Amino acid sequence: MNFNALIDQLITLEANVAELYRLFAHLFETDRSFWLQMAHEETLHAQMINQNRPLITKLVTLSKDSLVDLTEITRLMAERIRKLTREYRNKPPGKTEAYLCALQVEQSAGEIHFQKIAARLNNPRAKLIFLQLNGNDQEHVDRIRAQMCYASEPAAPVPAICGSL
Question: pTM of the prediction?
Answer without folding.
Answer: 0.80
